[in-house]
Structure to design on (672 residues):
C-alpha cells in the first residue's frame, strides 16, 4: 500500500464515522416521528431520565425497540445484498428481486398457518428453509445471465404470491394471523420475540465482516483467487450460508422487504470502490439508514395509520433498479 | 408444409393446413368449455337444458342467459384480447418475456382505474378511459427508460419489472389512502376476477376489444413482414415506426380494457402466444393461435377458479398467476438448457 493509500484509509475511517453519526441522527429522528410526535429532546430524556409519562412510554416501549429492529433488518438485507452481488458478480442481484425473500416469507406463512411456527426459533427455521429452497431454484433456472436470474426470481415471487393469495382466500382464519408477513413492515413487530433472530443477524453480520477480505480475492475472479491461495469453494459456501441466514432472519422479523439489498451496495460502492471489506462496513451503516428513513416515511405518508415499509422501499427501489439496468444492463451480460 | 388455399369469390387466402387444423381444434375446445361454463353452477344443468335455455326455452333461462352467458363470453373475449396483446408485445420486443403483465401495463391500467374509482364515480366509461390512459403512460415510461440506441429485449423486460414495482407501490398507497368501501372493492378487484360480471358491464369493453382485434387482423401481414427483419420490412413497404406505434396502442387498449373490467389477469398474455407459436410451429409469434389459446386458457382458468373451492369462487387471477408463474420458470429453464 502506498502513502496515498494510507491517507485514504484515514479518510475512509473518518467517512465511516460520519456515516455512523448520520445513522444515529436518523435513529433519534425516527424515534420522534409517528402518530404521536415526540420532540427529540424529550426522546433523549425518555432514555436517560425516564419519568413514566405517555411520551416516555411510547419512546421506551415502541419507538426504541422499533428503531433497533429496523437497524437489524436494514443491516441484514443490505449486507446480504452486498454478499450476493459480490459473489455472483451480478449488479442486479438482490435477495428480494431474486425471490429469496419471498420464498422465506412464503414457507414461513404456510408453516405458521399449519401450526409449525409456534416459537421464534420455529419461525426462523421455516424462514431459512424457504430462503434455501428459493435460492437453489432461482439459481438453477436463471444462472446463465444476470437478467435471466432476475426474471426467474420475479417468476418465483409471482407464483408464491398467487398461491398465498389463493390460500388466504381458502383458509381466511388460519391465514389471518400471518397476513402481516405477506407485506413487509416493522409496525407491531417490536413486541414479538425478537431476541433470537436479532442475535442470529448480529452473528451473521460479524461473519460477513470477517469474510470480507476473503471475498475480496473471489471478487477478482476465480483464477486470480486460486493463485492468491483462496479456497474459493469454501468461501462461496460460507457466503451462501450467510446470505440465506441474513435474508431468512430479516424476513422472519419483518416480512418480505425488497430493494434494500439492491440499492445499498450500489451506493456503498460509489463511496468505496473496489474493496469488499469496506463495502460490507458501509452496507452495515447505510442499510439501517435506508430502512429507518423508509420506515419514517411509512409513518407519515398516510393521513391515518401506517403504510407497510415494504411499499416505501419498492417506491424507492424501482428507480434504483432502472438506474442499475441502464448502467450495467447491457454490459457484461 | 401443406398449404390450403381458401377461396371466396375473387379473394383467396393461402393457409397452412396445420394452422387450419389447430384453429378448428381450438375453436371446438372453446365451444366445449363454453358449454361446461353454461352448465356449471351451484346446481348443474345438463347440456341439453343449457342449450334449451340459450334459445329461450326451459326453466333455466335467467340463470343461463343472464348470469352464466356473460361470464363465458367475457372469458373468451378477454382471453383472446390478452393473447393478442401478448403476441403484439412479444413481436415488438422480440422477446418471449415481453408480455404486458410482466412489464407492468396491468398495474398502470389498475392505477388509472383506481383514480377513477377514488376521485370520480367510477362508471364503466371512466374506468375504460382511465385504464387505457394508465396503461399507455406505463408503456411510454418503459420504452423511454429502456431506450438507449435501440431496445434490447431483456433490458426492456427488467425495466418493465422495475416500473411494475413502482406502480404497484403507488397502487397500494392509493388503496391504503382510500375510504374503506372503495378500498375493499379495489383490493378484491386487484386479484382479477369475473365474479359478478353481467351484461351491463360488457358493451364498451366488447366494442373496444372487437375493434382492436379486427384492426390488428388487418395489420398481421405487415407485422409478420416486420418480424423478418427491419430491412425486409422496409423493402416490402412497411412503415416500421408507425406500425409498431399502432401495434403497441392496440395491445395497450386490449390489456387495459380487460383490466378495467376484470382486474389484472396475469400470465395469459405471456403464455398464450408462446404456446400458440409452439403448436402452430410457426415462425414469429402468430396472432390467431395466440388469440384462440388465450380464450381457451382464460375459460379453463375461470372454470377451475369456480370449481376448486366450490361453492366459493376464487378470483381467476389467482389460478393464472400460480400456473403462469410455473410456466415462466419452465420457459426460462428451457432457454437455459438450449443456451
Amino acid at each position: 500500500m502506498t502513502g496515498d493509500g494510507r491517507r485514504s484509509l484515514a479518510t475512509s475511517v473518518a467517512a465511516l464515522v460520519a456515516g455512523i453519526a448520520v445513522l444515529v441522527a436518523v435513529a433519534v429522528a425516527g424515534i420522534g416521528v409517528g402518530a404521536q410526535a415526540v420532540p427529540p429532546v424529550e426522546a433523549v430524556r425518555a432514555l436517560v431520565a425516564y419519568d413514566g409519562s405517555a411520551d416516555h412510554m411510547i419512546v421506551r416501549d415502541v419507538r426504541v425497540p422499533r428503531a433497533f429492529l429496523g437497524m437489524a433488518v436494514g443491516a441484514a438485507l443490505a449486507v446480504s445484498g452486498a454478499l450476493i452481488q459480490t459473489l455472483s458478480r451480478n449488479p442486479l442481484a438482490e435477495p428480494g428481486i431474486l425471490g429469496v425473500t419471498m420464498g422465506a416469507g412464503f414457507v414461513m406463512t404456510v408453516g405458521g398457518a399449519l401450526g409449525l411456527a409456534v416459537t421464534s426459533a420455529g419461525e426462523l427455521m421455516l424462514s431459512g428453509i424457504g430462503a434455501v429452497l428459493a435460492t437453489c431454484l432461482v439459481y438453477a433456472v436463471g444462472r446463465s445471465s444476470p437478467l435471466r436470474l432476475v426474471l426467474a426470481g420475479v417468476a418465483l415471487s409471482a407464483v408464491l404470491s398467487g398461491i398465498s393469495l389463493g390460500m388466504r382466500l381458502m383458509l381466511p382464519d388460519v391465514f389471518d394471523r400471518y397476513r402481516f408477513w405477506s407485506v413487509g413492515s416493522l409496525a407491531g413487530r417490536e413486541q414479538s420475540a425478537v431476541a433470537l433472530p436479532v442475535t442470529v443477524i448480529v452473528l451473521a453480520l460479524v461473519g460477513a465482516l470477517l469474510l470480507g477480505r476473503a471475498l475480496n480475492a473471489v471478487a477478482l475472479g476465480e483464477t486470480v483467487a486460486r493463485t492468491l491461495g483462496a479456497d474459493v469453494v469454501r468461501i462461496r459456501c460460507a457466503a451462501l450460508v450467510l446470505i440465506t441466514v441474513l435474508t431468512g432472519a430479516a424476513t422472519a422479523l419483518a416480512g418480505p422487504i425488497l430493494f434494500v439489498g439492491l440499492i445499498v451496495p450500489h451506493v456503498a460502492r460509489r463511496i468505496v470502490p473496489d474493496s469488499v471489506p469496506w463495502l460490507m462496513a458501509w452496507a452495515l451503516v447505510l442499510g439501517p439508514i435506508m430502512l429507518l428513513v423508509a420506515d419514517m416515511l411509512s409513518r407519515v405518508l398516510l393521513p391515518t395509520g401506517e403504510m407497510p415499509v415494504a411499499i416505501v422501499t419498492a417506491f424507492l427501489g424501482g428507480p434504483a433498479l432502472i438506474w442499475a439496468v441502464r448502467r450495467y444492463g447491457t454490459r457484461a451480460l | 408444409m401443406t398449404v390450403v388455399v381458401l377461396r371466396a369469390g375473387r379473394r383467396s387466402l393461402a393457409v397452412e393446413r396445420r394452422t387450419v387444423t389447430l384453429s378448428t381444434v381450438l375453436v371446438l375446445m372453446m365451444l366445449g368449455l363454453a358449454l361446461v361454463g353454461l352448465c356449471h353452477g351451484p346446481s348443474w344443468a345438463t347440456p341439453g337444458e343449457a342449450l334449451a335455455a340459450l334459445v329461450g326455452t326451459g326453466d333455466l333461462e335467467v340463470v343461463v342467459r343472464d348470469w352464466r352467458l356473460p361470464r363465458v363470453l367475457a372469458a373468451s373475449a378477454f382471453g383472446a384480447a390478452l393473447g393478442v396483446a401478448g403476441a403484439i408485445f412479444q413481436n415488438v420486443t422480440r422477446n418471449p418475456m415481453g408480455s404486458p403483465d410482466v412489464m407492468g401495463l396491468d398495474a398502470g391500467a389498475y392505477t388509472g382505474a383506481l383514480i377513477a374509482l377514488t376521485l370520480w364515480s367510477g362508471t364503466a366509461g371512466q374506468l375504460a378511459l382511465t385504464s387505457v390512459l394508465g396503461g399507455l403512460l406505463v408503456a411510454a415510461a418503459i420504452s423511454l427508460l429502456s431506450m438507449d440506441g435501440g431496445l434490447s429485449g431483456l433490458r426492456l423486460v427488467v425495466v418493465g419489472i422495475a416500473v411494475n414495482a413502482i406502480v404497484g407501490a403507488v397502487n397500494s398507497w392509493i388503496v391504503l389512502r382510500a375510504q374503506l368501501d372503495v378500498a375493499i372493492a379495489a383490493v378484491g378487484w386487484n386479484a382479477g376476477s369475473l365474479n359478478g360480471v353481467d351484461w351491463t358491464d360488457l358493451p364498451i369493453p366488447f366494442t373496444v376489444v372487437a375493434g382492436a382485434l379486427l384492426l390488428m387482423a388487418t395489420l398481421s401481414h405487415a407485422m409478420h413482414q416486420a418480424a423478418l427483419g427491419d430491412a425486409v420490412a422496409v423493402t416490402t413497404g412497411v412503415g416500421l415506426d408507425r406500425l409498431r406505434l399502432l401495434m403497441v396502442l392496440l395491445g395497450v387498449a386490449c390489456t387495459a380494457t380487460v383490466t378495467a373490467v376484470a382486474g389484472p389477469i396475469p400470465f395469459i398474455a405471456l403464455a398464450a402466444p408462446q404456446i400458440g407459436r409452439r403448436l402452430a410451429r410457426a415462425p414469429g409469434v402468430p396472432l390467431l393461435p395466440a388469440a384462440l389459446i388465450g380464450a381457451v386458457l382464460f375459460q379453463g382458468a375461470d372454470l377451475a377458479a369456480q370449481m376448486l373451492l366450490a361453492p366459493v369462487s376464487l378470483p381467476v387471477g389467482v389460478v393464472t398467476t400460480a400456473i403462469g408463474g410455473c410456466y415462466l420458470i419452465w420457459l426460462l429453464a428451457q432457454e437455459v438448457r438450449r443456451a
User: Anything to note?
Assistant: The CA atoms of residues 224 and 240 of chain A lie 20 Å apart.
